[in-house]
Amino acid sequence: PGPQHHEAVDRVISYLYTTRNLAIEYSADAASTAESIQFASDASYRDHPDRKSSAGYICQAYGGPVDWKATKQPTVTTSTTEAELLGLSEVGKQLQWWRRLLDTVSFIPSHTLTISCDNERTVNLLRSEDTAYETKLRHMDIHRHWLRQEVREGRIDVRWVATTNMVADGLTKALSRQKHESFIRLLRLVDIGHLII
């Protein structure tokens, strides 16, 4: 191990120490002003040395996270829009799984299950009637057509949110201290240090 490894370990220990009292807060009040089940998807275009992109999604129930994933996408994409589409496609599959689970336990949300995305072009591509989008990547075309079908049939809704309100943003990139604090608030993590003896 060299100095860079010791520095990385120190950062991990510091992070664990400063977040040791954080807990996820679930609240019916959070769902009264928003949807009880929410999904968010984000991608960071070609941020790996092999030019693959990072992607992340999060599912929140009553304001708190219940399912999330951060990963490197399995294939190289040729634009930010393609990276976002690939990420949204994965979240769409996960949303279908959650819908089946909720049906099984007889919990029917009073709203359409929605995926938030901070890429306006991608959202417009899925929601508009205009199908003009060219890609030479066949698998991307298949993902796009499947998502458009689900949006048109009303099984999935995709909406744009500003990057500052994108909860999945923290799953795709390293964050500055200020953005990390915002990420903690978006995750509804609260400090319960005063409850611990």
Characteristic key phrases:
197 residues; alpha/beta; five-stranded mixed beta sheet; two-stranded antiparallel sheet; 41% helix
Question: Would you mind describing this structure in some detail?
Answer:
This protein is of the alpha/beta class and 197 residues long. The chain contains six helices and seven strands; from the N terminus they run αβαβββαβααβαβ. It has a five-stranded mixed sheet. It has a two-stranded antiparallel ribbon with strand order 1-7. Strand 3 and strand 4 (64-72) form a beta hairpin. The longest helix is centred in the middle third of the chain and has 25 residues, at 80-104. The model has no long low-confidence stretch (mean pLDDT 88).
How are the elements arranged and paired?
Blueprint: H1 3-18, E1 22-24, H2 28-33, E2 37-44, E3 54-61, E4 64-72, H3 80-104, E5 114-117, H4 120-127, H5 138-152, E6 157-160, H6 177-186, E7 189-191
Parallel strand pairs: 2-5, 5-6
Antiparallel strand pairs: 1-7, 2-3, 3-4
